[in-house]
# Entry
Amino acid sequence: MSADPTSDAASPKGSAPRPSRSIRYRLLAIALLPTLVLLPLVAGALMLRWSGKFDELLIAKVSSDLTVARQYLGRILETTGERVTALGQSARFQDQAGTGTLPALLSRAKGELRLDFLYVIDDLGTLIAASAPDLAAPPTGSPVVRTALNGLPRTAIDILGADDLAALGDGLAARARIELVPTPNAAPSERTVEDRGMVIQSATPVLLPGGRQGALVGGLLLNQNLPFIDTINDLVYQEGSLPQGSEGTATLFLGDVRISTNVRLFEGRRALGTRVSDAVQRTVLGEGQVWRASAFVVNDWYISAYEPILDSRGARVGMLYVGFLQAPFTAAKQSTLILALVAVGLILAISVPVFLRWAHAIFRPLERMTGTIAKVEAGDLGARTGVTASEDEIGRVAGHLDHLLDLVQERDRDLRRWNDELNQRVADRTRDLEDANRALEATTRQLILSEKLAAIGEITAGVAHEINNPVAVIQGNLDVLREVMGARADDAATEFRLLDEQVHRINQIVTRLLQFARPEEYAGWTERTYPADAIHDCLPLVQHLLSKAEIEVVIDCQTTRQVLMNRTELQQVLINLIVNALHAMPDGGKLTLACRDTDEKDEPQVEISVQDTGGGIPDDIRERIFDPFFTTRAAQGPDNRPKGTGLGLSICQTLLGRQGGNIRLDRSDASGTRFVILLPEAR
# Structure
């Protein structure tokens, strides 16, 4: 066996070890330090950061899924309210409101609208008609019903007890009843059954025979409503949206009980009657916060998101949940981390023997290698030794070191690219959510402004009614004064006539103001109307706006035809166009109101035009002027109030369309704007 010439056996007995042995160990330590210490630290830090970003991405996904589920639930509420309101305002409902066929109509409408019950009550809470023959004494204490009886439609989620559900008939109490299932991690409870019902309840005011105020109430029971929850699950977790092995779930809770879910217990049985964990209940129902974290769901761990559901009184009565199995993602993350650790271990396992074997190489190439490692430590991952490949040990060590640095640089590029992609996805999703939130806030502001305008209409109607009382007293005293004066009254006949005319004028203005402020009391039917009369009736209502600027009013009515339209609705359309024209001429101008006979498509019609001399409408917004909530006067005024709602032209288009008419922008340029209304002649 040959001896190592550098070993102690080759040294003279009792002599000190050669300096080369000490240098070898020191160079070996310097060479191995980056590999054994820095590389594991860098790899560990990168894996830790990747693991955190991976978890954040899962939470961001489940938060986005919850947003989709919430929007679908909100859409169901909105659609239910629109359908019930449309039924209450329909002609077939008004025609059958006072007849014995109303229950049959409600029964058919219940199926068409996909509701579980429909009934009509009067302002005293008395049942007028119902969709089911066994619907006896429906509950009327809900704020939804009270709001409708006060004249405003409303839709919200309400919780009805077993007695209320039984009163609604049609087996709703039995459908809502769910046996509770003992559930791990749930809060202790003595209850064994959930017999309450979560109901989407919508009510709209209706006018009953005899002028009585009533309400049309409809509802949809969500307990065991499997199509509802399956639709949410299909929307949120479409095919291919989750990795193989994972499963998306959605659930609707009443309190902490699952009343509608696609979570399975065993053999395909849904987990109805199971309860949420105590930690989630305290966070969501107790504190009103949104849960976005891992949670134990029935029998497994899920990446979950829960948010509270509020009823019509603002109380937290349930939860909406979406989530997906955590195990496949945990397994994927663990396998990735294990592969990374194995790769680092392999690199170390390959590098250490190589450095141990070539530790006796010459000093200068090692210096270059040491310098290269120092550059890499400083952040220059592109640094290389520059030693040419050779058969000696130093050349091979340099080659392996360069290869190792190539791998590190490639891993660093991959990790940075993945990090950038994750950041971009999170930023895109956050931006989409912010845009949706801003749109929702803008719509909410417009709806609040519409409610304020409705309140102003109520106040205006009340003031008009109050004016009628002193006017009646004045008229009565004038009559008494004539009788007291007897023949002497002829000496002041002119004065009495002027007083009578002015009192009559006040009565006319108040009547027109009432017709405009309370169109629902005068609308609902059509009548033959001369357009010229409607135009003349509008001018007193906008006289205060005409007096603020130098506006010249020109009326050119040449039509001899009548139109078949409710007079107050026609006045509402004309006043809206007149007010828009006046706002377009703040410094004065000319307002032309004209009507004439015309024939379009061989049909006799009446054309009414409103023309101003303002600055016109810009070309880029002409296609949007009839869109709801679009307005060019939405800027804030000095009192910080919006100047317009964007509903005027949309409402005008709706009112005219119901009578077979239409409205169009005929001309708009620097010389002014002209709107044209076309209505068919009353046959």
